[in-house]
Amino acid sequence: MWIIFAVLAAVFAAATAILARIGIEGVNSNLATAIRTVVVLIFAWGIVFIQGLWREIPNISQRSWLFLILSGVATGLSWLFFFAALQRGEVSRVVPIDKMSVVITMILAFIFLGDTLDAKTIIGAVLITGGTLLLVL
Predict the structure, then answer these.
(1) CA angle, 9 as apex, 6 and 10 as ends, to 5°?
(2) What confidence tens digit (pLDDT) does each residue in 26-66 have?
(3) How far is CA 51 from the centre of its chain?
(4) CA dihedral in degrees (7, 11, 13, 18; nearest 10)?
(5) How many CA atoms are closer than 13 Å to the CA of 12, on its beta-carbon side?
(6) Which DSSP letter does residue 99 get?
(7) Do 21 and 84 meet the contact criterion of CB atoms below 8 Å apart?
(8) Rounded CA separation 24/79 (Å)
(9) What is the DSSP letter of 89?
């Protein structure tokens, strides 16, 4: 089931870039990010309330709060920089660089989470990096 969710995430991430590029014409990228964030906020909290998950909020540990907040800050910064790049550059060049986050995530997961780093992972990371350079240069 996780593969289906991952594919859907990729499809909607692609749609995000195209829709955002069209939407930011004549709009400051920070303002566009703020508008997008409000939509995501309403959408996400709507799902939480519909599913009754708001009742679980008191059970969240301080450690989880800290890392979820830090993750939110990282997401916000990612979106701000992504929209700024998208407004100034071609989608076909901005998105591959943005997706270098895959390689950076693999490296950070190895360092901080103890994920396995085998030959297949290294070769994949090198190919992603090479493909990104090929698309951008």
Answers:
(1) 90
(2) 999 999 999 999 999 999 999 999 999 999 999 999 999 99
(3) 24
(4) 170
(5) 7
(6) T
(7) no
(8) 13
(9) S
